[in-house]
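User: Structure please.
Assistant: Input sequence and predicted structure:
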Amino acid sequence: MEPCELTAVEARRLIGTKKLSSSELLASCIDRIEAVDHAVNAMVARDFDRARVAAKAADAAVVRGDRLPALHGLPIGIKDLEPTAGLRTTFGSPLFRDNVPAKDARLVSAIRAAGAIVVGKTNTPEFGAGANTRNAVYGATGNPFDPEKSCAGSSGGSAVALATGMVPICQGSDTGGSLRNPASFCGIVGFRPTPGLVPTERRPHGWSGLPVVGPMGRTVADTALLLSGMIGNDAGDPLATTIHGKTVRKAKDFYPLAPIDLGGLRVALTPDFGFAPTEQHIASVFGEKTGLFRHVFARADDATPDCAGTDEAFEVLRALTFLAAHLDKVRNTPDRVGPNVRANVEEGLRYNAEDISRAFAIQTALYHRWQSFFGQYDVILTPSITISPRSWRELYPAEIDGKRTRTYFHWLAMAYAVTVVGHPAVSLPVGVDRNGMPFGLQIVGPRGGDALVLRVAAELEALLAGDPRTARPVPDVAALKVAPPISGVEGFLGFD
């Protein structure tokens, strides 16, 4: 096994015990990036020289016997939506093609302070709009199991970098499932935390819980380790959980994860939340996968919370966020803004105060119905995403099983059902579907149940790892090394 293929937890242990240097780990990661990224286009801006300097400093700290932070010496990929000092940050937009920020975003600063070493930026659709990772700056990112297919998004570059061993941990963000969707398509773990658990100053509507930032890893423990270095209380985020003068949530709450007895859990299983446009193939695979292990729970019922109105609420509230962030761009430089961003802004301009008030009222009613549901169940299990990966040339699925989708993001309904009510959720890789592509299981927890979700995911991961039908799938790195460059494929560069 090459160092870049180690879990983050094991790599960090070896660094701390002087059995692996950060420089050795970084060199292995850089070798892997240079060997396979031509096939998938995940690590789009690279910071190798500064990373090497940081790795040497990390090694010196180990030699001195310094107290080492949680992520000490671990290479990380940062999604190209987070500003990084001295490293190009484009947001996937031609408007920011040459943008080099002078300072890090709060999240990046926290990650560096926790000891991680930024290797580069991972690809994303323009401003994170949509779940097909392609843009007019860097082009498309291919799925590591089939570069002709989509890796989903918007944290697609991060998911692909993890799956292919480019780095042991990655950061991402999530509004309509952007941490969970690519995790599902690429066979890795993506966790959407409760809004405010990982502070961010970058939401255009500071009190909106729809957008969050969060961790991704190849295992649940790796994801929890990264989360422990991201959480905090920051006045820049009005949703950051706080009591004046006290630290409410601590890193030790999330890493290491305390064991949990699956046999004591009440679990609800649903293939579609009663409304998501789920491909019959995916619904069937979900039934087959969960049929292998649902007996381990104290109670496992086919049940769903009442999600009526979720589409309407999410569509309106999402459009408001896009209006706040991108209205000026669409008005002033429409030719340099892609179709997904334009569609959301134009939609937002059609809504009036009554529409917005109704959306907030629906969201509140949904939240209350979910709280009643969680009075009966501890977690909900669903597929992470509604379809099996398709070609990345398809901007978004316009139909599923012959039925038209409502919007370019309607196919993400399995994920945004959770977003609307603000609950934590994780996508756990559980084998492959009938097309041989990774299948993700979404585990949804109760209000504030971030640690519970990760503990359940870790126990399931351990339970399922020994069965090839449910173990985490691994892409064929050797095949990617000799694959043709994705940049040569027609349609590679552009919005649509």
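The mean pLDDT is 97.
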